[in-house]
Amino acid sequence: MDQNMDISGSKEFSAEIEENYNREEELKAFDDSKAGVRGLIDAGVAKVPKIFIRPPDELAEEFDRNKSDLQIPIIDVSAIEGSDERAKIVNEVRIASEEWGFFQVVNHGIPLNVLDEMIDGVRMFHEQDSEIKKSLYDRTKRVRFETNYDLYKSKFANWRDTLTIYMLHSDQTDPDEIPSVCRSTKELFPYTRTEIWETSEYIAELRIFTQKPEVTV
């Protein structure tokens, strides 16, 4: 079998260990295809490529870890405008950022229908033909399609594709760069942008406060 990964439609790809297996070549072939994991599925690959396979003992260890009662921090920002609650919320953001690296925000003011439309838009993007998505395949642009941002650094690739739309600040992403399939209806899209940008800038402000406690007083 050819050392390079074939995702052109062959169902003969095997994840079995071969003497001539070259991980770097397979990673590059996968990356150069710009089709991502969904591209493998669409091409009819019958077995999971070796670059994605992890040792059974490592998987068992992670499975046991995932069965724990740990829960990611949930931060309620509904009372952020109150002076008493603001310091409390800022402290919660600080702790979550330091100990977890991420957190879930609730009562942020973004309507459920807006969130649902965002999820639908991302799903529809990934379901498009690979040739359409290739134009956005990148790891540096603010609006990009990628698979495994650490593909060449991690021990094993993850079975996932990612659509990134950087919206931390409203003036840093041109709305026209966002894939049309991800945009809400004509009436809802401007509202969606406003709500998301306001919330993202708000969270960014909170994170700045956690680094400068004196400004929360």
Automatic annotation (TrEMBL):
Protein name: Non-haem dioxygenase N-terminal domain-containing protein
Annotated keywords: Iron, Metal-binding, Oxidoreductase
SUPFAM superfamilies, sorted: Clavaminate synthase-like
GO molecular-function term, one example from the UniProt record: oxidoreductase activity
Non-haem dioxygenase N-terminal domain residues: 72-171
InterPro entries recorded: DIOX_N, IPNS-like_sf
